[in-house]
């Protein structure tokens, strides 16, 4: 197929109709709001938002989608994701999730490199994913795309150690770019959280020991606070030399002041406790990412009111940090009162659609069904300060709604209708288009010489 033909296929896979002001009512389905269940419910959408959720009849003149015998749910939220930032992780030029600069680390903002035409978005969308928290990569990234230390921001040959404590800033995206009508913006909000590795990965960045990492982190916070109090002196070179660039210092001010959460990749129970202590003493907000041994210290995590992003199917002691990993981790944390969000596999890029499978596996290992639905819908929104905007089916929220053929945690169930911000999405993707091309032997299925 020619370049022109490939571009046409890409446009078709991602094209969506414009936001309509018409009223759409999804009626008769089992409605999972994210916090409750409504049998024979009605969800009304207009102008990109949810107008009402209840059991009433469809408004007069509304377009009606009959969901009888089906399940209506909020769009799922992929956390700890690389959607839109990585096409093929092994092809460096197509991966914008990691940064190797010695002078720019905390200030690295992934939102500038996100691609609304990425072929990964429609694939994830067909798994019910409508939003994602896109995070920069670092050596301890838990999604399966870990990079070697020399690829870590600020930790290149001859570089400083301290900048490497931070991988950069995360962004929230939606998966419904209206590319056919000129709408290409997928970023909902940039710079929603800072990202840093702790445990073994963080120790390697800091010089090889966990103790060094914590000391360097505290010294960094002290420098950031010094800078924040003395910006004018810094501008006239009247402040002592600092180890970070101005851009990184500015990026870390909200972290040091407790306004921006720090996503901390950590696995071992003892490391989790040290991170909780650090957060308490430094007055910073943290989100634990990974926490495979979190069940051992679940009560302490809950007492600290710290949320956890986790993969509930991680159960192998792949190293000494995960000796106690078990598939009951999600259930134990939720029982203790920890706010959890369930993520997909391998960086939540090509396998982001498996988020719902992981939630289903968590249910099979003790997590309640309502808690599993919340962990992939309303909980991520709460964790990142977006409750009421997306993640749940409530009046006033942006209309991210998926109609499923059956239980969304059942692998055989499929979406029969997907709305993102009120725009109905095509139920197709590049893999499906390629399947149809070769299966049906359509135009361009084979080079011309093959037909001779």
UniProtKB/TrEMBL annotation:
<dbReference type="InterPro" id="IPR013108">
    <property type="entry name" value="Amidohydro_3"/>
</dbReference>
<dbReference type="InterPro" id="IPR032466">
    <property type="entry name" value="Metal_Hydrolase"/>
</dbReference>
<dbReference type="Pfam" id="PF07969">
    <property type="entry name" value="Amidohydro_3"/>
</dbReference>
<dbReference type="InterPro" id="IPR011059">
    <property type="entry name" value="Metal-dep_hydrolase_composite"/>
</dbReference>
<keyword id="KW-0732">Signal</keyword>
<protein>
    <submittedName>
        <fullName>Amidohydrolase family protein</fullName>
    </submittedName>
</protein>
<feature type="signal peptide">
    <location>
        <begin position="1"/>
        <end position="20"/>
    </location>
</feature>
<feature type="domain" description="Amidohydrolase 3">
    <location>
        <begin position="364"/>
        <end position="409"/>
    </location>
</feature>
<dbReference type="InterPro" id="IPR051781">
    <property type="entry name" value="Metallo-dep_Hydrolase"/>
</dbReference>
